[in-house]
Amino acid sequence: MKLRPSASSMSPHTCCLVLGLCLGSVCADVLQAFVGRDVTITCNYDAKYYGTLSVCWGRGPIPNRGCANEVIRTDGTEVTSRESERYVLFGNIHEGDVSLTIRTLQETDSGTYGCRVDIPGWFNDHKHETVLNVLPARPNPPQLEPREVKEEVLTVHWRPVFDGGRPVLFYRIDLKNKQAPWDTAIKTELHDPSLTQVTLVDLRPARTYSLRMFAVNSVGTSDPSNVLTMTTKEAAPEASPAELKVEALSSRSLRVWWKAPRSDLRNGVIRSYKVSYRAYDGSTRQFGQWQYVWVTAEGEAQSCVLTGLKPSTKYGTMVQARNNAGIGPGSMSSLLATMDEVQTTSELTVGTSSPSTTRPDTRPDTRPDTRPDTTLDTSASAQTTRTTTKPTEITTKTTTTTTLKPPGTTLGLTVWASASTTFNSESPEPPVLQIKSVFEGVVSLSWSCGSHGSSPITGFTLEYKVVNASWDHLKSLDFSPDQTQATIIEPRPSSYHIRMFARNAAGKSRASDVLTLTVRGKDKQEDAPVSSLSPDTRAVSAEDRPGAHLAAILVPVLLVLVTAAAIGTWQIRRIRKKKGTLNMWLDSGALRYRAESLQESL
Fold first, then answer.
1. Beta partners for 213?
2. CA 105, 108, 112 angle in degrees (round to 5)?
3. Which structural domain, as residue segments, surrounds residue 81?
4. Is position 63 within any domain?
């Protein structure tokens, strides 16, 4: 009888080591296998020579008769008994192949297995023993199934796996972009072996990911699971279009340029753009309702023309990108005005004379009439009013020709036809300046800005002068664009005119409304309590008491000093409470900055 291990019947992951030892009529092999696998222990005899024979398999050394701890038996034609369904004879029994297969090995399956072939005659039985060592193995790989796919979430499920004879310690998930190699994958360990489902969050919308899983026990790491390739759903774009620009084309149209949002923040395929616009009324400082047009996405850089607009009107524009999931944030531009409509400018020169230089002329007028048709003569008589002084020229812009003529006067009309086109100023609107308070030499100002014009405001300029002085003798101070208030302390007592301008890249705004404020000196404020003592009262006191003459001098002086000290102490405390909040002050008629804190400077 020839005994051999069968490699063809083992699984690909089964590693077998067979050592053949023949001692007399009993041969012994050593076979190594792993938990959870199937193993086949070989046993054959020559059925053509002997015919079909009875065979038994048992656990433990083969005794003199039969098989110890018999697990399966055949009569040569079929299996007549077996201990468990795990023991199977897959070979061709009729041809003498009685190899034993043990399915789904367990560590308790380790031990000696004996095959005994009953050959007729004394001491003719053929016996073969095999020592089987069953070792723990790596876990089986999980089988992944997709469960849920959202914009930033993926959920996968798997069934519990065979642990290889040792408990699963954790699972490992590898996640990567589809086109990237696996060595760049993000690896995450799940240390709860009872898990059968996991949700991956914080993913990017409209991205394709590849995912696989491993199971790990004390023996090692399983083979990789099946690879899932899933694409997250689209979400609305997270970024606004870039490099938005607006240009005035005519009095009724604007051109808008922009570029597509950043590719990593589009969250899908950009299908179109929503270009919104609305008019701004500078007089009421209010916007009109939004209007919009849709533009099909065709490339990285696009433009469109907005038509049907109002002449000489400022418009605000906004562009938003849209994909299948929704509309993203808008990119807004500064206000830009359409051009003025082209108008015909008519210049009318009207000649008049003062009464002192006008005399009636009774001479007949024999000159040919070369005046244009637009010259009218409404004189009631044949007399013509003539002037001896230089005419005064009056020029006006109109869209129609207008003749101004006092009663009883003939006007000579000269018309020059010319066309002029003007453009809207792009400078900002003047700020609104307010005086918050004026108290004991401390002036608090605040201001707010209107429309920024065609570009952001770059700063403010405050101008001030004494009321009686001209604006040619002014002082000025510049402020940053984010500053909206200032405090002036201890100015020179006087009345002042103040005004403010806003600045941007296009120029300076018109002046704000001119405000007038009067700052009184401390001396006048501090003398008020003293003046409550009338001269008559002081005179009576001087006559009624001894030494009243000296007291009449000292008492007012002491009262002035005490009052001044009290007011000064209160003022110092008040300034200290405002430590570090003052922006500027007036000193000898000039505005100056203070960098250090007030408490240190006092």
1. 173
2. 90
3. 21-135
4. yes
